[in-house]
Each structure stands twice: as structure tokens, then as C-alpha cells.
Amino acid sequence: MKIGFNKPYITGKETKYIKNVVKNDKISGNGIYTKKCHEKFRNLLNNKQNLLTTSCTDALEMTAILANIQPGDEVVMPTYTFVSTANAFILRGAKVVFVDSREDHPGMNEDKIEEVINEKTKAIVPVHYAGVACDMDKILALAKKHHLLVIEDAAQGIDNFYKGKPLGSIGDMGCFSFHETKNIQCGEGGLIAINNSNLSNRAEIIWEKGTNRSAFWRGEVDKYNWVDLGSSFLPSEITAACLYAQLEEIENIQNKRKVIWNQYNDELSSLKNIGPGLPIVPKYSTNNAHMFYLVCRTPKERAQLIEHLKLNNINSVFHYICLHDSPYYNNKHDGREMLNAKRYEENLVRLPLWVNMSEKQVMFVIQKVLEFYK
Ligand SMILES: *Cc1c(COP(=O)(O)O)cnc(C)c1O
């Protein structure tokens, strides 16, 4: 029995909806399934506007254009994140200023943000790591005080909540990923959520390559024209059809993931005092069971644990290499140490978690982890 780290879940309706798209001769974007997805997201996020994108990377790039980021501007974000969070702003000429992780969680330390804010700072980009909410009240208060935009990288945060508010709907904008490693997936896909009504007209234009084509289709203008900066951010109807099948089953998908996450958490809680750290979910956040990880005490312990699991045909994986330390950015970073993020870089390991994992498979992983620590 081989247990992979991830196995994308397929509901069974994807192929039926994709066939409909092909049969209907409307495969390009912004058709029926895109609109159906937008409707679903409006119900999930209860916000101003949602636009499907070809990836979360693209959604982040859209936010950088919408935020009017110019060369020389500064954008604050965690160092322990995926490269796309940073690239989106670097592409517009911004300087990215990194913040360390929290002691108790890989997410950005909200108390370390204010010290790097200056007159060049334009935006804060919190990343909801493992789908767990950042302390958004603290971040929103800083943004208000210093007149900054808040852009949530909620790539992992679908259907999760901060004090009852859906992640991605709290800042001025939010971005989601539907890459096949995420809870809801269509292979490659994303969403930009617009929560600040000042940004919504422009969002639709940037999404449509800088044209007012959407207004044209609605009959609001008599021809469509190049009116702003933009790119090809919208996915084809095939992607939207696949995503819609997943959205219809979101409750079932999330429930199944939560059962597995809780099984890990219950059975491994005995390790707390003798071995690795278990994931922390602060009171202000719910848990969408995106990821179950352990934080080993040393890099050697992690390497041995991964090896032990591998010998038992279980694939466990580490995660981000800190961006401030990367070959691309280390000579641009200001030299501040990021000790907590480094600790997660060196010691965090993610266990297999996917919808169709059987209880037996989860138990097998648990047994092998416990065996390692015996
Ligand atoms: C997955 C992920 C992304 C990128 O998502 P894509 O859809 O693959 O572009 C960005 N940020 C974070 C935090 C992610 O986990």
C-alpha cells in the first residue's frame, strides 16, 4: 500500500459539465459555467465581486495592477510563503519587505508588521497559511492607520472564517487557488475577490485584457475599446465547468477533510510533550483542514521522519524555503533575521491528506509516525 501526499478528488460531474461546454460551442471564458461559479462565490464570500482567474498567481498579479503598485513602492508580506505572493508585486517594480512567522504558527507575525511600514509602503499581504486565518483585526487596524491596502493571499483558505467572516472577503481584495493541491480544485485555477467597491469597475476591465468588453456585452457601451492596462486573466469555460462540479460538493469535500484532520490531531496529540509540535488553530479562526503538519525539533529529526515514512511507502513533504533567503532575493533583503520562519523551513513536515484517504490509510500513517517517536 503506497500512500501519496496528495490525490486530487474528482466528484464525477466534471466530465459531464465539460462535455456540455464542448457541445455548446462556447469554450472561451466568461460563459455559463463562469457565471455559475461567480454566483457560488457570491454566496460563499458575500462580497462585492468575484472573478475567476487562470490561477491564484494570476489573481495576485491582478491585485498588484489594481493596487496601482509602481516602481519604488513597498509591499509587506511573510517570508514563509509561495513565490507567487512576492512575484506579483516584483513584476510591477515594487520592493517586497518580508516579515517573520509567528512563534506558534507559520503565518506572518502581525506584531512585526508596523516596524517595517514607511511612507513608501502601499499594501500588506497576509497569507492564511494552512488555511488558518491571520489576525485580521490587527492587520486592518494597521492598514487604516497607515492608509494601506490589504490583499489576502487566501490560496489555501477556501471556506474558512475569521471571527465568522469568510477569508478572502476581509481585506480590500482576496485571492484563491484551485490548483489540484488545494481543497477545491480544477487542475489550475484561481479567483480574485473584490471587497472594496472602489476597485470593482477597474477589476473587470483588467480581467478582460484592458478592454471594456464586459460592459459591451451588457449593452452599456456601443463598442468595446482598450481603456486600461490588462491581461488575459480569465480561464476557459472548461476550467469553470470543472470547478463548478467541485463547488457543488464543497460541503462534502470539506467535511471529509475535517474528519481526516481530526483523526490526525486526536491520535497524534500524545506527541505534544515528547516530540514534534502539532498545528495550532487560534480561537478567532475556524479550520478548513487544508493541511496537517508536524514541526520537528531539528532538521535531522525531520529528515529521519520523512525517511522512516518513505520506507513505509508514505510520502510526506516539507514546505516553503524562506523567500528573503532565496537565490533571487537574498541580496535585496535588508538583513533582518527571520528565526521563526527559518525554523518552519527546516522543521515542518506535511502529512498526506486527501478526500478519498480511507480511515485505515490515515491510521497507518499515524501508526508509523508514533512508531518513529517511540
Ligand atoms: C498555491 C498557492 C499559490 C499559488 O496558487 P496557483 O493557483 O498555483 O497560482 C499562492 N499562494 C499560496 C499561499 C499558495 O498556497
What this model shows, in words?
The protein has 374 residues and is α/β, with parallel strands linked by helices. It folds into two domains: 14-248, 3-Layer(aba) Sandwich (Aspartate Aminotransferase, domain 2), CATH 3.40.640; 250-373, Aspartate Aminotransferase, domain 1. Helices cover 36% and strands 12% of the residues. It contains twelve helices and eleven strands. The chain has a seven-stranded mixed sheet with strand order 1-9-8-5-4-2-3, sandwiched between helices. Strands 6-7 form a two-stranded antiparallel sheet. α1 (14-23) packs antiparallel against α8 (237-248) and α2 crosses α8 (237-248). The structure holds pyridoxal-5'-phosphate. Pyridoxal-5'-phosphate (PLP) binds at residues 55-57, 81-82, 84-85, 127, 153, 155-156, 177, 179, 190. Pyridoxal-5'-phosphate binds next to α3 and α4.
Keywords:
seven-stranded mixed beta sheet, 374 residues, Aspartate Aminotransferase, domain 2, alpha/beta, binds pyridoxal-5'-phosphate, Aspartate Aminotransferase, domain 1, two-stranded antiparallel ribbon
What is the compact description of this entry?
This protein has helices at 14-23, 32-45, 56-66, 83-90, 136-146, 200-207, 213-217, 237-248, 250-268, 299-311, 339-347, 359-373; strands at residues 49-53, 74-78, 95-99, 121-124, 149-153, 161-162, 165-166, 173-177, 190-194, 293-295, 348-350.
Give me the secondary-structure topology.
Blueprint: H1 14-23, H2 32-45, E1 49-53, H3 56-66, E2 74-78, H4 83-90, E3 95-99, E4 121-124, H5 136-146, E5 149-153, E6 161-162, E7 165-166, E8 173-177, E9 190-194, H6 200-207, H7 213-217, H8 237-248, H9 250-268, E10 293-295, H10 299-311, H11 339-347, E11 348-350, H12 359-373
Parallel strand pairs: 2-3, 2-4, 4-5, 5-8
Antiparallel strand pairs: 1-9, 6-7, 8-9, 10-11
Helix pairs in contact: 1-8, 2-8, 3-4, 3-6, 9-12
